[in-house]
Write a structure and sequence with these properties.
This protein is an alpha/beta fold and 384 residues long. The protein has helices spanning 47-52, 86-92, 111-124, 137-149, 163-171, 183-197, 209-214, 216-225, 240-254, 275-282, 309-318, 328-342, 348-362; strands at residues 6-11, 17-18, 34-38, 82-84, 97-101, 129-133, 152-158, 175-179, 200-201, 231-235, 264-270, 322-326, 372-376. The radius of gyration is 19 Å and the shape is globular. The chain binds pyridoxal-5'-phosphate. Pyridoxal-5'-phosphate is lined by residues 109, 111, 135-138, 204, 235-241, 300, 303, 347, 349, 377-378.
């Protein structure tokens, strides 16, 4: 019997409600992203019970979407380390700096979390073939979990994606199509084939369950610290991690495990593609698509348009957070700083977060006594 308290899906934009026992992409009425909603007055476990369970992505399976719950097949994703940033923290003037090292997930990036949840649910609902445009890491993760669940995976990906990521995706059985341009171009190239072949789309926020996998990062911060940190810095492309953690905090509050307090959320982007930063600075509740995104080594941040822009901006404002863009040289220097002070080969996206922390500390936005969590979302070895 399922332990999931999943009750229905609701559109994040127009609040229309849909049943959760069949596959859905975006809201048919307004094209907004659908979000999983749980019966939070159901049989919720206590924090004490949950902490006794084995750490991992399915630890709080009542608030996961799969019917398999704790028995859902896994590649060991989640339960990534949250460690003190020691010498890096000292150098940045942030003695309470922590790093959540998502590079230690299967396929070496946090994309494993979303794909673990989405692919497991897709398999439960009878999906045989999926497709997605990817900036890189999502494609590799999709291929891995497609193999685990016996689902065919089609990935449309920019042709300048680093070779190790392409190799990983192919080695895991993903069918790769290279596209000139950025992830939006990949998405446009994919659309007619998805329709023609009946592939189910796993594009960011085009289905509800990748978000459910990503939200577990928020639960884990709470398990590890016994409270939430003061500030979270997150490298933002489509923003699923940030939106997911924000959702996790709301669910923790609904369970009575935390109060109304929230970490200040910070979106980190690159100067050559910063739609969220621009919208935040303009006071807008949605982001205009970024025209001509520049090439960057932080491939995951070259996302000109985010379907969940309004959800990201809402979380930034409600948390009294901010959005900041860093230059290419700043993010490379950030990666170098992580490597030389912590012995950690971060993704350029993780380097961008280090650069942002440094800038925000210099500007006095971050204060020395604050507990600050910085996400390293992938492994540097994938970017050769
Ligand atoms: C390493 C890495 N960090 C950050 C991101 C951005 O993630 P999101 O699209 O969830 O904001 C990506 C996306 O591809 C990524 O691969």
């Amino acid at each position: 019997m399922t332990t999931s308290l999943l009750h229905h899906l609701a559109c994040g934009k127009c609040d229309a409600i849909y049943p959760c026992n069949r596959i859905h992409n975006c809201c048919p009425q307004c094209k907004g992203p659908l979000l999983a909603r749980y019966d939070l007055v159901g049989a919720l476990p206590t924090l004490r019970e949950v902490l006794k369970r084995r750490p991992g992505q399915n630890r709080l399976h009542e608030l996961g979407a799969t019917e398999g719950g704790a028995q859902t097949p896994t590649l060991g994703e989640g339960a990534t380390p949250l460690f003190s940033a020691g010498r890096l923290g000292t150098q940045l003037g942030l003695p309470n700096l922590l790093i959540k090292d998502e590079a230690q997930n299967p396929t070496n990036s946090f994309k494993a979390r979303g794909m673990a949840a989405a692919m497991a649910r897709a398999a439960e609902l009878g999906v045989k073939a999926v497709c997605l445009p990817s900036a890189g890491n999502a494609g590799g993760a999709a291929a891995a979990y497609g193999a685990l669940h016996g689902i065919e995976v089609h990935v449309y990906i920019p042709d300048n994606t680093p070779a190790p990521i392409l190799h990983e995706t192919r080695a895991l059985g993903g069918k790769v199509k290279l596209v000139q341009g950025d992830i939006s171009d990949a998405s446009a190239a994919l659309a007619p084939f998805a329709l023609k072949n009946g592939w189910f789309s796993l594009a960011t926020l085009h289905e509800p369950y990748r978000l459910e996998g990503k939200k577990v990062m928020g639960f884990e911060l709470f398990y590890d610290l016994g409270k939430l940190p003061d500030v979270i810095l997150y490298p933002t492309g489509g923003g699923t991690g940030l939106i997911g953690m924000w959702k996790a905090f709301d669910e923790l509050q609904s369970m009575g495990w935390i109060g109304a307090e929230r970490p200040r959320m910070v979106s980190v982007q690159v100067a050559g593609c910063a739609p969220i930063v621009h919208a935040f600075e303009q006071g807008s509740d949605h982001a205009e698509p970024w025209k001509s995104p520049e090439r960057t080594s932080a491939f995951g941040l070259r996302v000109p348009r985010a379907l969940g822009d309004f959800l990201i901006l809402d979380a930034l404002r409600k948390s009294r957070g901010t959005a900041i863009a860093v230059t290419e040289s700043e993010l490379l220097e950030g990666s170098h700083l992580i490597a030389s002070t912590l012995g950690l080969q971060s993704s350029p996206e993780g380097g961008a977060c280090v650069a942002a922390a440094q800038l925000l500390r210099q500007r006095g936005w971050l204060q020395s006594e604050q507990s600050v969590v910085l996400f390293n979302t992938g492994h540097g070895a994938k970017y050769v």
